[in-house]
Amino acid sequence: FVRIVSIVFYEERDFQGKSYDCKGDSVDLHGFIHRCNSVKVEGGWWVLYERNNYTGYQYIIGPGEYNDYCHWMGFNDCVRSCRIIKNVRLYKLKLFDRPDFEGTSLELTENMKSVHEKWLRPEVRSCKVMEGSWVFFEHPNFCGRQYLLEKGEYRNHSAWGALKAIVGSIRRLELM
Q1: Are 54 and 81 within 8 A, CB to CB?
Q2: Which residues are in the Beta/gamma crystallin 'Greek key' domain (predicted)?
Q3: Is residue 69 left, alpha or beta, with left meaning phi > 0 and alpha meaning psi from -120 to 50?
Q4: Where do the domains of the chain lie, and which CATH numbers do they carry?
Q5: 10 Å Cβ neighbour count for 117?
Q6: Which of 34, 54, 137, 161 is deepest in the core (most CB within 10 A)?
Q7: Are 92 and 128 in contact, with CB atoms under 8 Å apart?
Q8: What tens digit of pLDDT does each residue of 20-62 get?
Q9: DSSP 20-59
Q10: What pairs with residue 126 in β-bridges?
Q11: What is the pTM of this model?
Q12: Are strands 81-84 and 134-139 parallel, antiparallel or unpaired?
């Protein structure tokens, strides 16, 4: 059994124009495509970044066809780097209301559609991902800017790439 891991980037909508077939992590896609208006994910789950070196807005997408950047919740046609997300089976996340893992904490093993339901503050100041991969969303109901958090420690919100500590919803990244 061989698992295909591939993503094809297209410069134009509806899978038109110049394309690039990517099989793994890429720190800078600009040498292959100048913009990205559609994508076909032929295997695996990916995180796309607005800028090179895995920085800027993040978009998490799985197998399927996305004929317009709006379909992966993109803000524009700019995708400059990408990473394959490794397969995960267990999920455990601990949130803290203060930086450096201090203050009140909450442990999660399931999705949270609205962080405000169980967390009194709108901010998550630090967190530890003990198992699995998770996605923080800026707004409730899994909307807004996305931030991928893989196993590790995040001492403050900038450690996961956010400008603010606001987290509206949290989803486990369950890979097929």
Answers
A1: yes
A2: 5-43, 44-86, 91-131, 132-174
A3: alpha
A4: 6-84 (2.60.20.10), 92-172 (2.60.20.10)
A5: 9
A6: 137
A7: no
A8: 999 999 999 999 999 999 999 998 889 999 999 999 999 999 8
A9: EEE-S-BS--TTT-S--SEEEEEES-EEEEEETTTEEEEE
A10: 96
A11: 0.70
A12: unpaired
